[in-house]
Structure prediction request, 254 residues.
Amino acid sequence: MATTPRRMTKQKAAILDYLKHSTHHPDAECVYQELKKQQPDLSRSTVYRNLAQLSEDQVIEKMGLQTESDHYDGNCSPHNHFICKKCGRIFDCGKEEIDTQQVEPIGSIETFTVYFYGVCHDCEKEA
Amino acid sequence: MATTPRRMTKQKAAILDYLKHSTHHPDAECVYQELKKQQPDLSRSTVYRNLAQLSEDQVIEKMGLQTESDHYDGNCSPHNHFICKKCGRIFDCGKEEIDTQQVEPIGSIETFTVYFYGVCHDCEKEA
DNA sequence: CTCTTATTAGGAATTGTTATTAATAAGATA
DNA sequence: TATCTTATTAATAACAATTCCTAATAAGAG
Prediction:
């Protein structure tokens, strides 16, 4: 995915180090505020740019729905979604059974959502 | 969740009707553009406000991670997340097996993510 | 019908994020 | 080590998605 060579900088290193030693899934602002304490002239854009680059390079992971705006669903019955990486369409699919025993030590599950990513069959045909 | 009485308006009815008869998971702008054809003086704020209200009332569903900004995870090994509705913390949990046969007719899965929502044990103790 | 107040249109303001630009510095090569 | 190329930076402007604000409107209870 990376189209240009990458250089390591102290800013990028700090961002990466912070994320690799965190377990609380910070957002960009949080990373910025935290690292600004060590590097007072760190820029917000640098944080955003590096977070984008690092997740593009799969060194870190961006959480959440990989779409630019929020989407709404009029169908409230239990079901999941498949998001096509190519055409961007969101498809409904059945609610799969899922084993939750690994979650029980953490808390009580009220709901869960599953997002599948891939290429839909329509787009596959075109390629 | 609704703290004030609700009134039905033709704007809200149109938004709801549109969503209930859609299967393509539109975003706010899409709903706005579509309904503006019938109601030329419909306002964008009205669409946003009603989408928020309707999903608060669980009449429709807002997709994606229920947080205001994007979060990043330095841990790239396969795992899922539990989001506490009370304290907002995001916990890691193991990657569960999931049956994907219902998704196969739609497309080829490359990855998937599972988000569990509930109340963590820390918050349960406090209540 | 009347009254209360939730809801509206319209636009301005805010927020999360990205683009721009000149200056800087990583890392390859000599 | 000195030099060169160019990815990266800080700062800020620009941007797009969303929310807030205000006076006017209209739902629906009495």
In short: The domain at 79-126 of chain A is CATH 3.30.1490.190 (Dna Ligase; domain 1). The helical segments of chain A are 10-20, 28-36, 44-56, 121-126. Residues 5, 7-9, 27-29, 44-45, 48-49, 52 of chain A lie near DNA strand C (CB under 10 Å from a C1').
